[in-house]
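for the record, two folds in this file. i put them one after another cuz i was lazy. first one right below, seq on top, C-alpha cells after. the second one comes after a little note so u can tell where it starts
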Amino acid sequence: MNTQPRIYVAGHRGLVGSAIVRTLRAQGHTNIVTRTHAELELTDQAQVREFFRSERIDQVYLAAAKVGGIHANNTYPAEFIYDNMMVQANVVHEAWRAGVQRLLFLGSSCIYPRLAAQPIREEYLMSGMLEPTNEPYAMAKIAGIKLCESYNRQYGTDYRSVMPTNLYGPGDNYHPENSHVIPALVRRFHEAKASGAPEVVIWGSGKPMREFLYVDDMAAASVYVMELPRAVYEANTDPMHTHINVGTGEDVTIGELARLVSEVVGYHGRIVFDTSKPDGTPRKLLDVSKLKALGWTASTPLPEGLRRAYAAFLDRAPEEAAA
C-alpha cells in the first residue's frame, strides 16, 4: 500500500503546475493525481465535488488559473475574473467538504497596489489601488487568499498561499500577443535572428525594473512551504496576511533583460527602445524576507534560467521556434 500523501496538482499542464509535478516526482512522490481540462472542468462545482468525493485527496496544489499578459487581461476581463474566482471557490470549498486539511494556493504579485513601496511586503496587500490593466485578475487572486484565510479561521483547515513574482521557464506561453515579457522577448529575438532583422524594437524606455523567478525554483518553494510544519508556517505569518512572497529579492531593468535574452538567443542586431510607448509601473520587487527566514532562497541565476528557458522553447515549441 502506498503510504505517501495523495497529492492533487490542479493545473498540471501549466507553467507552474507542470514544474510542481516535476519537483514532486524528483523528490520521490508517486501518488500524484492530475486531470486535464477535458477530464475535469474546475468551473463546474458538481464535477469538482464528485472528483474530491471519489479521489480521497490529502493535499492540493491549486495552480490552475487563467493567465495572460496585458493584452489578454485588457481584452478578456470578464473571463479573467469569472474563471479564476470560480476555479478557486470550487476547489477550496470542495476540498474542505472532502476533508482535505492542507492546500497551497498560488497567487500573483499583481495583488499588490500599483504604486506600493519597494520592496513589496506582504502587509501591503489592499493598501492602495491596483494596476488597472490586470485588476480583474488581481481581484480574483486576492479573493483566493481570503478564501484560504476564511476557511482556516472558520473550519481550522491548513490552507496556505504563496505569491510569486514574474515567472518564466519550461512550459511558458509564447503567444505573440498574450505572453509575458520573457517569453515574448525570447520569441521576438529568435524570429529576428532567423529572419536576419537588423533591429528589434522594445516598448518603452527600458528603464522599468522587474524581478524574475525561474519556474522550477517557484515549484521548489511551493513544495517547501507546503511541507512546513503548521506551527512554523503560522509563526512566520499573521492572521491578516497569511500569504508569503516568493521571489529572488533582486531585479533588473527591462533594458538589461532584453540584452540578456538577445545574448542567450544569439541575436546580434540593434535593440531599439520605443519611448513613445508606455513604461508601466517603474519598479516591482517583492520583499522575500519571510521566505528566507523560513529557510528557502532561489538558486537559479537569471542568465542560467534564460538559457534553460530558450532550450525549452527550441525543444518543446518547434512550430514557434522554426526558422
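(here's the note) second protein begins now
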Amino acid sequence: MAQFRTLLISGASRGIGRAIAERALAEGHRLSLGVRDPAGLPPGPLLEAVRRCPEQVLLHPYDACDPSRASSWVAATVAQFGGIDGLIHCAGVFSRVGLLFEAGQDAEIEALWRVNLMGPWWLSRAAWPALVASGDGRVITLVSMSGQRVKGPLAAYACSKFALMALCQSMRNEGWDAGLRVTAICPGWVNTSMASQVTALPASAMTQPEDLAALTAQLLRLPASAVPFELKINCVLER
C-alpha cells in the first residue's frame, strides 16, 4: 500500500531538487517547497500545483544561510499539513577554492560551509520534533561523491561535503530509536548547471536528475527495516 508523506524539500526550484519534487508530486506526496525566490519558480508541474492544489503543495521562502528561515518554514508546513514525515536536502553550492586559497577567499569558504553544512543542520534541527513525532520519518540528503573522496585541488567543496556526511551519520544515530531513517545520496557528475563546464564527459553520459528522483521515490517507499544509509552513484569508473 502506498504511503503518502508530507515532505520538506529544499532546493526544489532547479536541478536535482526540482526533479525529486516533480516525481514526489506525481506520486501523490504532500510537498512543502523551500526556495530562495518563490516568485521565480520556473513554469512546470510544481508551479501549476502551487496555483491549483494548495492543499497538496506549499511554496515558502527559504534561505539556507538564515536559520530563522528554517524555523519559519517548518512552522508554516506544520500549520498547513499538521506534521512532517520526510525531509529532503537538495540545496547546496559549489566552489573551486583550493587548499592554498588566495587572500580574500575566506568569505567564499565560510559561505560554502554555511549553505552546505549549517543549512541542512539548522533545517534538520527545526524539523526534528515533527519527524520524530511521525514515528516513521525519513531524511534524505544529496551529498556528493566529494563527500567520499577528494579528487583534484577542490578542497573547500570536498571538506563541506565530508562534514555533511558526518551530519548524516549523527542524524542517523540520533533518530534511529524513534524510527527515523537517514540516507545520504552521493552522486558523481549529474547533468545539471553545476556540471555545465565539464568537457571530459558529455551530458548524456552523466547521471540524470530524473534517475536520482527515481531512487529517492524508492527510498520513500522502503520500510524502516530496509532503508540504506548510503547510496554511491557514479557515471564513471574510479580506480
